[in-house]
Amino acid sequence: MVTNQPALRTSSGAIWIIVAALFTAVSLVPLIAIVADGSPAAPVALVTASLLVAALVAMVIVRVSVPEGSPRLRALAGCFLGMALVALIGLLICVAIVWAPLTG
């Protein structure tokens, strides 16, 4: 079963924070480049970057405040999935904004 994984049953939650931090760092590279370039997509990139950092902070708060066990791990997994969704949607919107003049 999909939910019968060690990362959702026995982990301390540290791996979720490590992976999320790496994901955030990799995601921030193009977002910061878009903001630094002064592109019309800069506001969207800035909001997306802010949401990613806020989600990472939320994960750290969940890690230290929720008691160890399945609820903590599920909350961390949910936060990580939310981060991935925010990054994907934000970058797709940025690409659409940048490419809009080329297709019109």
Short description:
This protein is mainly α and 104 residues long. The chain has helices spanning 6-9, 14-37, 42-65, 70-103. Helix 2 packs antiparallel against helix 3, helix 2 runs parallel beside helix 4 (70-103) and helix 3 (42-65) runs antiparallel to helix 4.
What would you note in describing this structure?
Keywords: Membrane, Transmembrane, Transmembrane helix. There is one protein chain. This protein has 104 residues and is mostly helical. It has one domain. It is built from four helices and no strands. The mean pLDDT is 89.
- What is the percentage of strand-forming residues? under 5%
Name the shape in a single word. Answer: elongated
Q: What is the distance, rounded to the nearest whole angstrom, between the alpha carbons of the first and last residues?
A: 47 Å
Number of domains: 1
The total of helices stands at 4
Whole-number mean pLDDT: 89
Kindly state the number of beta strands: 0
Topology (elements, then pairings):
Blueprint: H1 6-9, H2 14-37, H3 42-65, H4 70-103
Which features characterize this protein?
104 residues; 4 helices; transmembrane; membrane; mainly alpha; transmembrane helix; 83% helix
